[in-house]
Amino acid sequence: xxxxxxxxxxxxLDILKARIKSGDAMTVALIAEEFNVSPRTISRDIQxxxxxxxxxxxxxxxxxxxxxxxxxxxxxxxxxxxxxVDLMISLAIAEQMQSPIFMAGLTxxxxxxxxxxxxxxxxxxxxxxxxxxxxxxxxxxxxxxxNKNKRELVELLHQAFLMQLACEIQYQDQAGQCTxxxxxxxxxxxxxxxxxxxxxxxxxxxxxxxxxxRIQSLKILSEEFKLLPIEAFAACLDGVDAI
Length: 243
What we know:
By secondary structure, the chain is an alpha+beta fold.
């Protein structure tokens, strides 16, 4: 059995890492035989990979199996920016609902997710929960007129909402008429299953409530706005029993 040099060890570690990630059934004895080294050498290689952050389980004994821990993939989720924003808003919604079922582990999830944002973004994310209101379910009449939300519009609205950026929208009212509006999305309201956005409407120079599913198109503008207090939207929330 030959003695391996540094280059051979590095090559073996790369191959071993790929083999373990593949999920193929293997044992220390079989790996040692394949690489023509001792089982002790393979055990040392496995420890090196562990030190590099690869969570490997290796059973002791002659037939001991080598495999990744079952929850290894959980720590390898890669989110796009829009996915991270959507997830942060979803966490804020779950927290506002104050359900013990949803609350379990939310704090640690939010902290880990926030670590991926810049310092400026973290300041906006911290106040996210206070900008979301959960009300009662809508009437059957409203429910009958609900349209399916367009995913790309929801993502853009979430980004404008989080970053406090004005946006230009095409909005279809109850009568089916479309108007072009420049809005500043301050708060979100959920009257399940319908989402509303509470905005400052530049056209009306006043606060307004728009149903998200009636937004036909949305373009984020570069203008950043200062958040108005929720009291400024009292008329929009009149009659809404919201958290």
